[in-house]
């Protein structure tokens, strides 16, 4: 089932059972789901089958980053399992991204392919330690333009950069934004954050929300509060 909601709930759980327990409280008409490294490493493709069987569209967030041939094969494997969206690291470069896109096109696979720019947990100091002296917002812009030119359908960025990327890359370019923190939630390890309403107003096309919902005392109440905030926009 497809949904008009911009919300993607991150199922960051250590077991298939725990993830499905949460999925069974959610409704595919109200959100999409994201499967990341921890859950996929524990459960393998079974989790995708289980979520698809429950009617959810799934973002497989494995952030592939390797040589072009390897990434193209991994993206093809993900798309053949029917995921709605898959991603690579833009830092893998133009040839890697082009190879991934070309592989999808060659096999007629319509999965959305996006690229991670700068992780939302990183700030200027973190970038500087890995040899990037450019400020985060500028680095995001550089990688987003490269991603667009390499055939990506959009990027993962912080909502703080969404507005500028709409100007740079066009309104149809997807801005998938983790780093969503409602006023009631702690930032934790995230650094470049925004509230759901501010992210919506900034032009985020999809909002990834994990712990503010999954670790809330009452996850359904937390989700409803986020939906109410978005409805005000
Ligand atoms: O830059 C990025 C890329 C991916 N993520 C993922 O999004 C969720 C966010 O979860 P929260 O609990 O809401 O912080 C998580 O699965 C990350 O792996 C990201 O945060 N930043």
Topology:
Blueprint: E1 7-10, H1 16-23, E2 32-35, H2 37-43, H3 46-53, E3 58-64, H4 68-80, E4 85-89, H5 94-106, E5 112-116, H6 124-129, H7 136-149, E6 154-156, H8 162-169, E7 174-177, H9 196-202, E8 206-209, H10 211-214, H11 219-231
Helix pairs in contact: 1-3, 4-5, 7-8
This protein binds the ligand O=c1ccn([C@@H]2O[C@H](COP(=O)(O)O)[C@@H](O)[C@H]2O)c(=O)[nH]1.
Binding site for substrate: 12, 34, 61-70, 120, 181, 190, 210-211
Active site: 63
Organism: Halomonas saccharevitans
Structure, described:
The chain has 233 residues and is α/β, with parallel strands linked by helices. The protein is 43% helix and 15% strand. It is built from eleven helices and eight strands. It has an eight-stranded parallel barrel with strand order 1-2-3-4-5-6-7-8, surrounded by seven helices. It is globular, with a radius of gyration of 17 Å. The ligand O=c1ccn([C@@H]2O[C@H](COP(=O)(O)O)[C@@H](O)[C@H]2O)c(=O)[nH]1 binds next to strand 8 and helix 10.
Features:
233 residues; alpha/beta; globular; binds the ligand O=c1ccn([C@@H]2O[C@H](COP(=O)(O)O)[C@@H](O)[C@H]2O)c(=O)[nH]1; orotidine-5'-phosphate decarboxylase activity; decarboxylase; pyrimidine biosynthesis
Alpha-carbon distance between the two ends? 24 Å
Main pleated sheet: 8 strands, parallel, barrel
Mean pLDDT: 98
Estimated helix fraction: 40-55%
Any idea what the shape is?
Answer: globular
The tally of strands reads 8
> From N to C, what is the helix and strand string?
EHEHHEHEHEHHEHEHEHH
Count of helix runs: 11
- Give me the Rg, rounded: 17 Å
Main-sheet strand order equals 1-2-3-4-5-6-7-8
Ligand catalogue: the ligand O=c1ccn([C@@H]2O[C@H](COP(=O)(O)O)[C@@H](O)[C@H]2O)c(=O)[nH]1
SS class? alpha/beta
Q: How big a fraction of the residues is strand? A: 15-25%
Enumerate the spans where pLDDT stays under 50 for 5 or more consecutive residues: none
Function: Catalyzes the decarboxylation of orotidine 5'-monophosphate (OMP) to uridine 5'-monophosphate (UMP).
Organism: Halomonas saccharevitans
Enzyme class: lyase
Keywords: Decarboxylase, Lyase, Pyrimidine biosynthesis
């Amino acid at each position: 089932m497809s949904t008009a909601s911009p919300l993607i709930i991150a199922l960051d759980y250590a077991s298939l059972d725990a993830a499905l327990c949460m999925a069974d409280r959610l409704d595919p008409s109200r959100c999409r789901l994201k499967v990341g490294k921890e859950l996929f490493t524990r459960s393998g493709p079974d989790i995708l089958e289980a979520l698809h069987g429950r009617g959810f569209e799934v973002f497989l967030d494995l952030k592939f980053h390797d040589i072009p041939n390897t990434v193209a094969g991994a993206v093809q494997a993900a798309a053949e399992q029917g995921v709605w969206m898959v991603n690579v690291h833009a830092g893998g470069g133009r040839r890697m991204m082009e190879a991934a896109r070309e592989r999808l096109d060659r096999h007629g696979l319509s999965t959305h392919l996006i690229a991670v720019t700068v992780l939302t947990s990183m700030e200027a100091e973190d970038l500087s330690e890995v040899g990037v002296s450019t400020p985060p917002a500028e680095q995001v812009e550089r990688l987003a333009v490269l991603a667009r030119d390499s055939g990506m359908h959009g990027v993962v960025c912080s909502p703080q950069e969404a507005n500028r990327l709409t100007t740079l890359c066009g309104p149809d370019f997807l801005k998938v934004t983790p780093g969503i923190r409602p006023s009631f939630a702690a930032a934790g390890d995230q650094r470049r954050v925004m509230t759901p309403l501010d992210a919506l107003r900034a032009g985020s096309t999809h909002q990834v929300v994990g712990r503010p919902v999954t670790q809330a005392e009452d996850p359904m109440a937390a989700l409803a509060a986020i939906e109410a905030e978005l409805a005000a926009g």
